[in-house]
Amino acid sequence: MSESQVTEKALIPAPAVLVDARGLACPMPLLKAKLALNACSPGESVRVLATDAGSWRDFPVFASLAGHRLSVCERHAEYFEYCLEKKSPAPK
């Protein structure tokens, strides 16, 4: 891991919730992530571990459509890792 990668990871806030969705098929990793985000406050993060290959496509699309920040999207040897930061509510 390069020094810049270490620095970037150090800037990511610790996740409020860890969702271990390894071994679960689509759409369960994303569904469990959505449920965890619903329980979080704006600005809090959810870290998701998944083995479902479709999650590699699903998480960036979901984050973009829902307005959440996808701060981690990494492939590891045995699983995928995502970190979603819940968006702030729209001003009234």
Descriptive notes:
This protein has 92 residues and is of the alpha+beta class. 36% of the residues lie in helices and 26% in strands. It starts with a helix and ends in a 7-residue tail after the last strand. The relative contact order is 0.21.
What is the strand content?
Answer: 25-35%
Rounded to the nearest angstrom, the distance between the terminal CA atoms is: 43 Å
Order of strands, widest sheet: 1-2-4-3
Order of helices and strands: HEHEHEE
The number of helical runs is 3
Largest sheet: 4 strands, mixed
Q: CATH H-level name... which superfamily?
A: TusA-like domain
Give the topology, please.
Elements: H1 3-11, E1 17-21, H2 28-39, E2 45-50, H3 55-66, E3 69-75, E4 80-85
What is the gist of this entry?
The protein is an alpha+beta fold and 92 residues long. The protein is 36% helix and 26% strand. The protein contains three helices and four strands; from the N terminus they run αβαβαββ.
Name the features.
globular, Translation Initiation Factor IF3, 92 residues, four-stranded mixed β-sheet, 3 helices, 26% strand, alpha+beta
